[in-house]
Design a protein that fits this description.
about 80% helix; about 100 residues; mainly alpha; 3 helices
Length: about 100
């Protein structure tokens, strides 16, 4: 694994955990999960911890340029998603 990929994978996995924590918190606040595959909390947790983690490790070991581009796109997407989660949770906290 390249050094850049190692830090990128760590960032993506931590962003994934932030996404999971924010989702669980939002569910506790009464928000409904819209993804039908993730409506069961145990499935959501297992998927976020293991499936995403294994996929990130697999992608990081790929040398194809498309895999590297995919990791960069995922980094951007998770950054935007986590910012969105924080904004929504702050908004929910003000109306509840």
């Amino acid at each position: 694994m390249k050094k850049m990929n190692h830090s990128m994978i760590l960032y993506l996995f931590l962003s994934n955990l932030i996404d999971l924590a924010c989702t669980l918190l939002a569910l506790q606040m009464g928000v409904r999960e819209l993804n039908p595959l993730m409506t069961h909390i145990p499935v959501l947790i297992v998927y976020k911890l293991f499936a995403v983690g294994l996929l990130l490790v697999w992608l990081s070991q790929r040398q194809e340029k498309i895999a590297q581009i995919g990791l960069r796109i995922c980094t951007l997407a998770y950054t935007i998603l986590d910012i969105y989660h924080f904004i929504c949770l702050l908004w929910l906290a003000t109306i509840l």
